[in-house]
Design a protein that fits this description.
Blueprint: H1 2-31, E1 74-77, H2 78-87, E2 96-99, E3 105-108, H3 110-113, H4 115-118, H5 130-133, H6 150-155, H7 179-185, E4 203-206, E5 208-209
Antiparallel strand pairs: 1-4, 2-3, 3-5
């Protein structure tokens, strides 16, 4: 009987010691990064310490504000831009000058004027373009007028299909006496699309400002 008790006691102690050693081994291997070499236990290499920053003692540099640059484009009423183009000879290649709302002399070309004739939703919200009604098809175009191209504008209105020239709408260079000015700046209650003055409030950005040195009086 005593021998059996001793066996149980010795067996329990053996199991306990084996379990204890196994637990210590597991803890060691886990602490070493699951490796028997235990690289984590190596001493850290000596490194250069972060130096203390020396506070700046020099005075701060004063930065002068850059002068404001002039806008690359000029702000002008649409009707005034067309008028300047007309009174300068209505060329499709030569530049013309005008004065914008800020009083600076500017220069533009026909390409700056053309959008006023061919772009929709411009003269007022929801408006059609001039060229959408006054198109190249004179058979259906009101007043037999083509506003879709430079050649059509110069050819004028009230012309037959084969007629190269009709009624001048540019007033011979006198803008305010021209038919185009009357239909843009004045109310035409009996004309569809012109029952209100179109020029009211339309401001556009066009052309480029000229320096005082390069500016020349508009003829």
């Amino acid at each position: 009987m005593n021998d059996d008790v001793r066996k149980y006691i010795y067996g329990a102690l053996t199991v306990f010691l084996v379990g204890l050693l196994a637990w210590v081994g597991i803890v060691f291997v886990n602490a070493c990064g699951m490796s028997l070499t235990c690289n984590r236990g190596s001493a850290l290499p000596e490194t250069t310490p972060i130096p203390t920053l020396i506070p700046a003692t020099l005075p701060a540099m004063e930065v002068e504000a850059a002068p404001a640059s002039a806008s690359d484009e000029c702000h002008v009423a649409g009707v005034d831009l067309i008028g300047a183009w007309v009174e300068a000879g209505a060329s499709d290649t030569e530049a013309f000058q005008f004065e914008d709302v800020n009083g600076q002399t500017c220069e533009a070309v026909f390409e700056d004027v053309e959008p006023l004739f061919v772009n929709a939703n411009l003269w007022y919200s929801g408006s059609l373009s001039c060229a959408s009604c006054h198109s190249v098809d004179l058979a259906v175009s009101p007043a037999q007028l083509d506003m879709s191209s430079y050649e059509g504008i110069l050819a004028g209105s009230r012309r037959a299909d084969d007629a190269p020239q009709g009624t001048d709408i540019l007033g011979g260079g006198n803008w305010q006496s021209s038919l185009l000015y009357q239909f843009i700046a004045e109310t035409k209650a009996d004309v569809p699309g012109h029952d209100a003055a179109l020029s009211s409030g339309l401001m556009v950005y066009a052309g480029t400002p000229l320096s005082d040195v390069n500016a020349t009086p508009t003829p």
